Amino acid sequence: MSVVLDVFSIVAIVAGLVFFLAGTVGLLRFPDAYTRLHALTKADNLGVALVVTGLLPQMDGVLAALKLVLVWLLVMLSSGAVSQLIARSVRRRECSE
Amino acid sequence: MTAIVSLVVALLLLWLALWTVVARDAFVAVAGFVVYGLLLSLVWVRLAGIDVALTEAAIGGGLTGALLLGAVGRLRGTEAAAWSERSGACTRAFAVLLSVSVATVLALCVLTLPEPPPTLAPQAAENLAATGVGNPITGVLLAFRALDTLLEAVVLVIALIGVWSLAPDRFWGGRPGPRYGADPDGILTYLARVLPPIGIVVGLYLFWAGADHPGGKFQSATILAAMWMLVQMAGLSDAPRIDSRWLRAGIVVGPLVFVAVGVLGAWQAGAFLGYPDGWAKPMIVVIELALLPTLVLVLALLLNGAPARSADSPPAPGETSLSARSTRPMPAGGTRQ
């Protein structure tokens, strides 16, 4: 059983890291702020989600697992809000130019 | 394997530090500084200094970063002039000499430390039970070296007085900073309504957990102050008037209670800040409870800056300095496309 869980963890975390890698490449390669934000939010949402999912079976206790889920939800909330704010300020600067 | 990870992180940290110093654009330098703080807190986690990691992430990366961003906003007007300036060869040579010699002295000090380095950790761990707290950091901060913590709190209050004293006379007793205004249906206002309840719970949890686990009043106060700043920046509440009585009482309550407990110790336990037998834990809790409002208020008001308008000035949306990039409302029609 524990082998299955370990394999699940490894697969999920590696998949999450792939999203992080893709997001970073996008951040470096994409032409403008909006597409770069798009790449970044993929890494934030899917990447963190997969890493957290992979770590869940490794936690000792339900409480620790719940804390991890809470961290994930907070990361989603803040990264979503911050990327909206950044996009908005870029848009405003384009409008004023 | 772990050695390689440590080495990579250490090299990354050095590179980031260099990048932060070399960056010409102030905003870029501050961004580098914040990332540096977060990476440094990871290093503290690896060194098993969870308390230090929390403080570094909250105060080093977060709060100092926000303070520096405020400074960048204020300096933007003069930045072009600063760029065109080039200091003379003599000044540059002196700066190089000074930093190289400081680095050399620091390196020599670290390299000539005796092996094993002198430590009081065993004594602190041995006597921790007498304080009644389970987290050795809290034990050191509030029992063995309580005087340092008292002076820290006093220094913070003095720093705030220093910031306030920059206020022009006509605004004395007014409110610090600009009145923020944000789109009432915007994402910032949404965040400022959703996040504070969670942040307050997390902050108070960190405060309470600090007795037995990593955490404590400083980290907790930073989170609570950040929540307050978020509410202010979304325009949901205004910065306080600095002549309000409750505000000033809240600012001085921490140091005053701390000194009172210290005097009580001088009378009951024979030493300033000594705790009578069996009373250490309640005394520590009293001090922490009194320090929390002081720290929250001082940290938030340091971010707010000097009073810059009279107490009953109307809201002036568009006049933002702390986060000019994010809180200004959209110009009319800017949202639609």
UniProtKB/TrEMBL annotation, chain A:
InterPro entries: PhaG_MnhG_YufB. GO terms for molecular function: sodium:proton antiporter activity. Keywords: Membrane, Transmembrane, Transmembrane helix. The keyword Mitochondrion does not apply. The keyword Membrane applies. This is Monovalent cation/H(+) antiporter subunit G. The chain crosses the membrane at residues 7-28, 64-87. It comes from Candidatus Dechloromonas phosphorivorans.
